[in-house]
Amino acid sequence: MTQPAPPAAKRGRPSKFTDALAEEICERLGKGEPLAAICRGEGMPKVQTVSDWRTRYPEFSVSIACAREEGFDALATECLKIADTPLEGTRTRIGKDGIESIREDMLGHRRLQIETRLKLLSKWDPKRYGDKIDVNATHSGEIRIIVGGDV
On the chain, which terminus has fewer CB atoms closer than 10 Å, C or N? Predict the structure, then answer.
């Protein structure tokens, strides 16, 4: 009598996907942290691995999408907070009388922080945070089309 063949071993590494890890990723995305930054952390999967998990686990894909929307709103809220909160700093200027330190609001720094976040939001979620473009153009008047010849 012959022995039954052992079950075929699965190829590749076993998945490190866990509900706890998926929840942590979604929680951090919901706070506005980019996926690439999350994946650079110790013990976190690579971005490509998360992408593969989204394909393999549809419920994880839905959770990621919801968390990203929450994260976009968190970034927008952060822009308001930055705009409403003065940030005092020191600007140093070298003049005729030596080095002069001036304490002032770091308006340029705050503007850069806000503009960077808004630009990212416009790329990541253009429907909600992108520039609105009116594609309903109207024209009144004559249009002349000249084919060939001297113009």
Answer: N
